[in-house]
Design goal:
The structure is a homotetramer of 445-residue chains. The first copy, chain A, is α+β, with helices and mostly antiparallel strands and 445 residues long. Helix content of chain A is 62%, strand content 10%. Chain A is built from 17 helices and 10 strands. Chain A is elongated. At the A-B interface, α10 and α14 of A face α9, α10, α11, α12 and β3 of B.
């Protein structure tokens, strides 16, 4: 039984939702209109009503077979599905399914008819339910702020349509020769009122109309105000990342200006932030990864650095676990063009991996370029073993994203892997002696 | 004397507040109307006025016996209550109590009458006081943002009512055959103006009316604008949790997109956040608990973990204090489906308790399922005693909320309980020897 | 020369600002009016203009003697003051000082007159300058948000006045029999337009009027919208503290609800937050003090705790510096009613000082109340010297603000004062022996 | 080939942008007008159109040679530039370049003409592109919030212009004798409608007009509302620094008020914040620098402190690297007037450098002023070598920005430079002995 349910993420599901949406929209538009203009195209209306009723009926069957997601798990058990459906949308679906229009057509209802006809309005509820469902599904694939704006605008127009129909019902003397004209003028009055423009060329005349206008003014104008307020807010907040970044940039710039930092340095710092924005919307890797739980953080780190670490000869004999531990502890760091990463003569204490950009390996006097290293290469591995001065100067050629492995982190991780520690200690000893040899030779010459 | 006071949280108190609210509302609606239409239902008005006066009188007695809360303590001392009442609402209550209407009815006041009649307006103040009181009491049981919206709308309608009455007073030629109609048209004008729709079908004619309209336009339209602005803001902020969560999710997603993390991992991370949202609205346990003071934090932690900890055989002989110290130091951690929690062969350093979800205990080659552990169970307790490799792989079957107890935390707590430390050390020795035996056997076979 | 300058914080300064404000307001109101109605009260106008001119002249002298504040220092040097004044407001002051009205009265200016008369408008600039000055001074004594709202409303009304005068100038056919009526109608039209109500009973007729109305519609309505938007925002942000606190409370409550913490504990936690709000608007002492630089932080801490610390017999012989170091390191902590602060039998490691509230000292079985300690008292000082179990249970009777002094902090501070360290070590030894004696006795009995 | 490209930051580039902007603006204004009033100044129009066409053509050539910036690098490679241009703005530029107006003039197009004429509207797109380009360039030199406000207002007026032209096209009976008058009235109607004022003196008459008005009411009024909402928000957020600072200040003040800190201390704390605001907009140096990556942080720190550190005799023989390490570890600290920085008799553990302000060196009894130190001077260097009591009291005379170098930081850095460490140890020994001598002498006398 389990495998027979419908997956809400499937294409079939999406297509069906679209069909039901169009049907509901048709119902929501025509039902109020048919109450005001009862003699509009009786045959077409009947056919369309029948189709819609069938679609709504099939939709109930569809929902009885539709899996749903809860706490990351897809529920496929039929019993749970039925239960879930009955407690949520079933009532609205069944009410919308009843073809009041068709039923009433067949019955001779004199005075009572008008009142019962209004029952058809419950079919409009279906639209609310369909929009909710679609919204839930689309929200993961679309900017939710933009989605919300679209939904708000859609409802604004629907409500304006309902108000127009009500105004037509209450005010039969609306200008216009035919139904179309009358509706146009009613819609014009509605929009003029709820946008608070209020030309005043159409005003209420009878007591009932005055009462109706009061309600529309309070609710309609409030709705419009809220809509505008909401959209204004959405526009402002649509790019939270940018706002936060601008704030941060302004903080730094205010400080630089007040402390009279030279213009050249200010420019360099601004360029750095520009780079940060273009490459990662200003978000720091460390900050983002720390928000993830340990296993996911590791998964992302592994993806980012596995390739480069594997290449390091030093780690050739290391176990998978050791390499994983190293990767999780790498520190991302950004260098601007011409920044010194390593200076010849300094005591080194870090190894570096180039994730992006290129660096130059220079002679201590910076006259000679030994090499240019780029993405996927590394340098300074000697510093993990010995405390010797750097033998070359390394300078960033452009903006570089490096990962830094400090010696103490390396040593700490190493202690958890006694076997590999022995290998490394052996290597260190060999290097140390080689070093001494070089020094001696150096002294001799 | 102390026990005779009324508890403001009691049902009686709530009912009485409702009665006083209805009376005040009746007064606030009828007093301005009766000033404009003096000849409206004299007998009914008199009876209603008398009842209201009695209720307002009883309300003063009620307040003289009403306890009040301050800094977490309920003050029941009569003297303090009276003092508190006199300094707060007494003046308004006594002013609202005076039945100006009834008094004036009995006295022959010719010209002076009109002016004194206006004094009745002070009774309207009672409504402000009642709303304030109810708001204070309801605010703890209701979303304060929604409460504030309701109160704002209520006052908006009340003010519109007052403006309509004033317009009627200043403009006796308002259209309409009877009092009802006249009021309806005045109300229609008010709403049309303060919603800034301004049809212009009713405009001021005399100098006084122009002045009145200027004031209403400035204050009324401003009020409406502020109301809309406030509500728009409330809507935006009604779900702070969701906004913050969306921001956080967007930050992570932007980073993942910019660093080109594989789609599968992105999906997994989004599912994780979805789980975080569904189970705890995105709030991390550690973060929330750290906002509490030590004793409350402990109380919550104890409730969450006491049952599970008590079951651990290792802690059978531990004192209550020791267990409490352990619980407060547990670290919550979430695993996604198929995440490895423990890998066979690794050196273990944590014990785990399952708070929610289920995990599988697998053979090192993951071919055999030894067991499935669920909510309330635990694993890895050996790691607290010995530094031996894990003997089985443990994998999350679904989203799991675990609590982690790191070995160093355990050791640290242990040092504070020398007696239990001895027991544990003894146990460790036994296990170590047992382990050696197993190893030897393993080697032999 | 230095002491002769005027202090901007003096009462004289405040009174003078008020006089200049009233004069400027008079000018700002009458100058545009006199341009539209040239024949209004010529004698009174002349006298008033003369007085204003004198006041404006004196104001220039006043400013040449007015000290000003910069980076926390009051500048009293005349030369600097003059320099500062010339670079800031002098130009506006001198322009406003010139009595265009009086000068023009004396001269026969035919056609040219009208144009030159408009020059009088520059006097209105004085109002801008005066408002700015007063705003700067008042801002420290008043909620800046409320001040800003008042200033915004004031300018809104002033601008409406200017627009009304301009409308009168451009549209001489405004309804109304006399100047007062005409102005009233013009003002009515202005407000109706810029609040976007737009009745449409007064509309532009000539080309110039249409152009004028377009400008007013764009600028005036925008101004009104911005005013409302700004005020709505001010209202929302007027109580930042409350908003942040509500957010925090909601975070905790959401968590408690989702983790199904018992209702009793939830209630207790909410009461705690209520207490935090009532006693300190939700702000934590540690967080606030850490925002201050070291010397100010110490000053506040000393004020809060000096009295209580001095009373401790243990610190009788300590130097002032030692006590200061202790006070700065106290940790504030809040206990709810019935919370255990100390439990008999536990190893103690903290001393406590009661800053607010009262606690009960109970026998280990909680049957007997040994004592009730309140504000200004302390307990647990033995824990600073010896690692012995607590001899009594101590329980909070109501909400208590305590300061905690952990043993390790005490020891650390002690090391910086070798002399006092000796005294304490001596004391410790004595106590230890006394303790042993008690134990022995205990065993014997 | 590389050096022949145009730098987008050059003055030539800025001038050319201005020329293209003016041409686009001319096109955007005249094209819709010429559709409504076809017979307007045919000769002038033709000449202007020709010039604009030439400029638009040259602009395409210009863009084919224009370098562009990406991730901090200026791309100068012609091939990449062309590629980049083709994928971005080329299509709009080429469409705007086609002189539809001139082409159509030459051809006899009867009925078809009207429709084809509308094609000219595509030239208006050029304006969008030009504004975008200028916005991107100006955004770095201007407050982005203000820039955005200006752009919004500009587009608001442009859209109002387009709506006016459309209204003229749809409603030929607009009042007015000539083209200018007709346009004025149309613009007046547009503004009256989209500011939601809606006088109602001009209302739609035909079905087409009603439809047009409905659309304008929805879009135009929404546009206006969003514009106002956006600007209100921009105004509120224009000074993020101030808002955050006010919040912080309020937090402190609320705390001080609730804990009843003496008024004098409250005043002192407020003065401190005032100083913080005036000198650095409330931003803390540490916080700002920590947002920068290591190399940029060092560059700023070096600039701020290099001069002062070099002067210290103690560091005369130190290497450049050592001094750099010291500078990066200095801690900024602010003292208020009359704060004690160092007290005679205390054990010193910090050296201080004065970055701003002045301090007094006083005798232990504060009766004698030994010296006044100001910006660029330092004191307390002895504390880095020996643990001896301070020999003088040092007090801030005004607000002082100092940098503090704690002894332990100094020692830590020293360990990385063994050679210099020897020098310092030697010095310490000498000083110690000198100290002993002084003490002996002191005892003798």
């Amino acid at each position: 039984m389990r495998t027979m349910t419908i997956n809400p993420d499937s294409k079939f599901s999406a297509s069906w939702d679209l069909i039901v949406f169009i049907s509901s929209l048709y119902v929501a538009i025509t039902v109020p209109l048919s109450l005001v203009f009862p003699n509009l195209n009786p045959i077409i209306t009947m056919i369309a009503d029948s189709i819609v009723t069938i679609i709504f009926g099939l939709d109930i069957l569809y929902n009885l077979n539709l899996s749903f997601q809860v706490e990351g798990k897809l529920v496929k058990d039929r019993k749970l599905i039925v239960n879930h459906y009955l407690r949520h949308w079933f009532l609205i679906d069944i009410l919308a399914f009843i073809p009041f229009g068709l039923i009433l057509k067949g019955l001779p209802l004199f005075q009572l008819g008008r009142i019962i006809k209004v029952l058809r309005v419950v079919r409009v509820l279906k639209l609310i339910r369909v929009i909710k469902t679609i919204q839930g599904e689309v929200s993961q694939r679309m900017n939710p702020a933009i989605l919300r704006m679209i939904v708000l605008l859609f409802w604004f127009l629907m409500v304006a349509h309902f108000i127009s129909c009500a105004w037509l019902a209450i005010n039969p003397n609306v200008a216009g020769n035919n139904e179309g004209d009358k509706y146009l003028y009613a819609f014009y009055w509605t929009i003029t009122t709820i946008t608070t423009i209020g030309y005043g060329d159409i005003t209420p005349q009878t007591r009932g109309q005055v009462l109706f206008v009061i309600i529309i003014e309070i609710l309609g104008a409030a709705m419009y105000g809220l809509l505008i307020g909401n959209i204004a807010n959405l526009i402002v907040n649509i790019d939270v990342a940018k706002n936060q970044f601008k704030e941060r940039l302004e903080r730094v710039n205010t400080f630089l200006k007040y402390r009279r930092i030279p213009h050249k340095v200010q420019r360099k710092i601004n360029d750095y932030y520009q780079y940060l924005w273009e490459t990662r919307r200003g978000y720091e890797e460390t900050q983002v990864l720390n928000d993830l739980p340990e296993p996911l953080k590791m998964e992302v780190s592994l993806y980012l650095n596995m390739d480069i670490i594997k290449k390091v000869p030093l780690f050739k004999e290391a176990s998978k676990e050791f390499i994983r531990d190293i990767i999780v502890n790498l520190l991302p760091v950004v260098y601007s063009p011409d920044d010194y990463i390593v200076k010849a003569g300094e005591l080194g204490a870090d190894m570096f991996f180039i994730s992006k950009g290129s660096v130059q390996v220079l002679s201590p006097n910076e006259q000679m370029v030994y090499a240019t290293l780029t993405q996927g290469q590394f340098f300074g591995e000697m510093a993990l073993l010995l405390s010797v001065p750097r033998t070359a100067t390394i300078k960033a050629l452009e903006y570089c994203d490096l990962y830094r492995l400090p010696k103490d982190v390396f040593t700490q991780v190493l202690q958890r892997y006694p076997d590999f520690e022995q290998t490394i200690l052996q290597l260190t000893k060999e290097r140390e002696e080689a070093n001494k040899m070089i020094k001696k030779k150096g002294k001799k010459t």
